[in-house]
Amino acid sequence: MNKICEDCHHLFETDDEKSTKCLECIRSYEQNRQICRNYLQDHQGASISEISRETKIPIKRIKHLIKEGAISYK
């Protein structure tokens, strides 16, 4: 079945009815999650803007990762 990726809005093919993201966006999401987690391990207490500036990950993406519970932020 064909679906539209919720992140990049491109058409992708999947057999999984629950799938909402294309493979490229899934990989990007996981890479961003790992980069943020690694940065936060070394820089506890960093602000979201500092994380974004140092990792080159957009603030919007970092907030999304926090909201989904993919990274812990205090």
Layout of secondary structure:
Blueprint: E1 2-4, E2 11-13, H1 23-42, H2 48-55, H3 59-67
Antiparallel strand pairs: 1-2
Task: State the end-to-end CA separation.
Answer: 40 Å
How many strands, what sense, and barrel or not for the largest sheet?
Answer: 2 strands, antiparallel
Count of DSSP H/I helices: 3
Report the β-strand fraction as a percent range: 5-15%
Described by the principal axes of the CA atoms, the overall outline is elongated
Order of helices and strands: EEHHH
Oligomeric state of this protein: single chain
Share in helix: 40-55%
Gyration radius from CA atoms, angstroms: 14 Å
| DSSP summary, beta strand count | 2
Task: Briefly note the structural class of the backbone.
Answer: mainly alpha
Stretches where pLDDT falls below 50 for ≥5 residues? none
Q: Estimate the mean pLDDT confidence.
A: 94
Major β-sheet strand ordering: 1-2
Characterise the protein shown here.
The protein has 74 residues and is mainly alpha-helical. It has a two-stranded antiparallel sheet. The chain is elongated. Helices cover 50% and strands 8% of the residues.
Describe the structure using short key phrases.
74 residues; elongated; mainly alpha; two-stranded antiparallel ribbon; 3 helices
